[in-house]
């Protein structure tokens, strides 16, 4: 399901763009050139820092979130199961 959701928009964008003759006129790209530009690298580092800091913050400071307190007597789902489920869902939605 995750691949279906994440790849759908990109495939629709690629399939709906009409081909142009200018693409054939461009010079070839050097195979030793980097695909990742400096701006892309800075964006990736920024997003990674944001996601890691949010996940670590929510892992250790979750008492302020309503209905998420750990119940040691909850034997059916386990200790902190709601907390870990919330963390997993946030991680998936940030992707």
Overview of the molecule:
With 95 residues, the chain is mainly alpha-helical. It has helices at residues 2-16, 22-25, 38-60, 81-94. Helices cover 59% and strands 0% of the residues. The longest helix has 23 residues, at 38-60.
Distance from first to last alpha carbon: 13 Å
**Helical content band:** 55-70%
Strand content: under 5%
Give the radius of gyration.
Answer: 22 Å
* pLDDT averaged over residues: 83
Outline the biggest β-sheet.
none
Give the overall shape, derived from the CA principal axes: elongated
- Low-pLDDT segments: none
Structural class, from secondary structure content?
mainly alpha
Helix and strand pattern: HHHH
Number of helices: 4
How many strands in all? Answer: 0
Summary, kept brief:
The chain has 95 residues and is mainly α. 59% of the residues lie in helices and 0% in strands. It has helices spanning 2-16, 22-25, 38-60, 81-94.
List the helices and strands and how they pair.
Elements: H1 2-16, H2 22-25, H3 38-60, H4 81-94
Helix pairs in contact: 3-4
Q: Which short descriptors sum up this protein?
A:
95 residues
């Amino acid at each position: 399901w995750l691949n279906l959701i994440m790849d759908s928009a990109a495939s629709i964008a690629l399939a709906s763009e009409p081909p142009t003759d200018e693409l054939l006129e461009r010079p070839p790209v050097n195979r030793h050139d980097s695909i990742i530009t400096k701006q892309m690298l800075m964006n990736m580092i920024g997003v990674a820092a944001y996601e890691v800091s949010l996940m670590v913050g929510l892992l250790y400071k979750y008492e302020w979130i309503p209905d998420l307190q750990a119940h040691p007597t909850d034997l059916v789902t386990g200790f902190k199961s709601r907390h870990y489920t919330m963390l997993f869902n946030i991680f998936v939605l940030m992707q």
